[in-house]
Design a protein that fits this description.
Blueprint (H helix, E strand, L loop, with lengths): L1 H22 L3 H6 L7 H9 L7 H9 L3 H7 L10 E4 L2 E4 L4 H19 L7 H9 L7 H17 L1 H14 L6
Antiparallel strand pairs: 1-2
Helix pairs in contact: 1-3, 1-6, 3-5, 6-8, 7-8, 8-9
Length: 178
């Protein structure tokens, strides 16, 4: 039963994110978002640690101190700020996320919040999660600032306005190489 519930959650999440990505003009990213969740390395732990009200990664972390599925996921998906961490001369380097991946990250956060909170979702919920539950250690300061900016905009001005603005942001920053 957990197999089908986890599968349904992944499908709902991808559908929610796809809709939001399309609003930002990110058609390819919307179609390919989180395909790695179907890989053996991510899907099996997803089923095993499925709870329905939060990511299975959280439960796996509680049990083992880390999540093997998360390590696999963040290393293959550029919409996670952790992907943009590098090491140079013995120091960590937190690279600013390119606009199209920052926008997908916001779509991902909003989509996940909608799926897990269901009818309790509000446009302020993704911001609350970001401010209170996101471990921003390792997040580039500009990436953190822009994420908070757009999630605050979502809370204050709603989804339609925010994703129209995100689309402009992506378009204006398209020429930036990354």
């Amino acid at each position: 039963m957990k197999f089908f519930k986890h599968l349904a959650t992944v499908i709902k999440h991808r559908r929610a994110v796809r809709k939001l990505c399309f609003k930002c003009g990110l058609y390819r990213q919307g179609l390919t978002h989180d395909l790695s969740k179907y890989s053996r390395a991510e899907f099996r732990p997803g089923v095993k640690y499925y709870q329905g009200f939060r990511s299975p990664h959280a439960r796996e972390r509680e049990l083992y101190g880390y999540s093997s599925a998360w390590l696999h996921h963040k290393g293959r998906n550029k919409h996670h700020f952790e992907y943009w961490t590098d090491f140079a001369d013995g120091s960590k380097v937190y690279v600013e996320m390119p606009a199209k991946y920052l926008a997908e990250m916001i779509c991902d956060r909003v989509g996940a919040t909608k799926v897990y909170l269901k009818d309790k979702y509000t446009d302020g919920a993704p911001l609350d999660y970001f401010l209170n539950k996101t471990d921003r250690v390792g997040m580039n300061p500009k990436t953190a600032e822009m994420t908070e900016y757009y999630l605050t905009m979502l809370k204050e001005k709603g989804e339609k306005f925010t994703f129209k603005e995100l689309k402009k942001y992506v378009k204006e920053n398209k020429a930036v190489r990354k």
